[in-house]
Every structure is written in structure tokens, then in C-alpha cells.
Amino acid sequence: MRYTLSNTINGSLDEVISKFKDPEGVKHWMEGLQKIEHLSGVPGSKGAKSNFHFLHKNKEMVIAETILEENLPDHIKFGYTSSMGYNEVEMQFEKIDENVVKQTNNSYFELKGFMKLLGPLMKGMFKKQSLKYMNAFKAYVEQ
User: Of 39, 40, 44, 129, whose CB neighbour count within 10 A is largest?
Assistant: First the structure.
């Protein structure tokens, strides 16, 4: 399953990237995130590995993140592994003008088990969650 979403953020490219790269800032726009556990590599760089610990509906969930590509301010690509399967997210940032940045999320999912059967029916839910994070990041930058 693949999809692409985009929005615009009112802020300079430098400000947007600075807030995107701030590991403490993630808690402001990634709902349910309890902590990030750095495992290996240089944080924020290609090859870095971390575990993201979430609390969702009173259930703990751990998602393993690997940074696959890092070419900010242009783009960054993440690989995520969880009990549901594998997900790649490429975030692109494009300067529209001095105070507007277009953010694009290209997502790809390989679901496993029961989720593999439900995936096509749940595409809307996955897109809604991605857009929720994007809009929360937008609000965090613009506050």
C-alpha cells in the first residue's frame, strides 16, 4: 500500500527543519509518544536506530526506526518495523517562499498477518493518522 500526502507550513525552511530534527520536539506532534530510545548510530543520521515507545488506548507499543536516507533540508527517509509490519516514510520539504514550506509524506506499507488482510480496507485510517501527525507538526512549527 502506498500513498502521498502534503500540506504547507507557515515558517522558514530553516525553522521547519530545526523543529523537525529536534528529538524533544517530536513529543509535541506525535500523539502517544512516551519516549525515544536511541540504540545505535549518530542520532538524526543515516543508519541511526531508535525505538519509539507509544501508549495508544492504554496499550504500550514499540516501533523500531531506522533512518534510511538523510538529505535535509530536502528529504529524509525512515524505515519502521512493528508487530503490524514494515513501513517506509519519506518526508520531503520544499521552500515555496521565505515563509512557506511544502511538506510531502510518501508512505509505503508491507503489512503482515491479519493486518495484511485488513490493510486495503484500512488505507483511509493510515492516511488519516499520517495527516494527523503532519497537521500536528504544522501547528507545532506555527505556534
Answer: 44
Length of the chain: 143
Q: For residue range 3-37, what is the model confidence (pLDDT) as tens digits?
A: 999 999 999 999 999 999 998 899 899 999 999 99
The domain ranges of the chain are: 2-142
pTM of the model: 0.90
Task: Give residue-wise pLDDT tens across range 64-80.
Answer: 999 999 999 999 999 99
* Domain over 2-142 is classified CATH 3.30.530.20: yes
Cα–Cα separations (whole angstroms), residue 31 to 47, 54, 139: 25, 8, 13
110: exposed, middle or buried (C-beta count within 10 Å: 0-12, 13-18, 19+)? Answer: middle
Distance CA 131, CA 7 (A): 9
Element (H, E) at 114: helix 114-118
Q: Cβ neighbours of residue 138 under 8 Å, at least 6 residues apart?
A: 7, 8, 9, 103
Return the closest-CA partner of residue 1 out of 126, 102, 140, 96. Answer: 126
CB atoms within 10 A of CB 19: 19
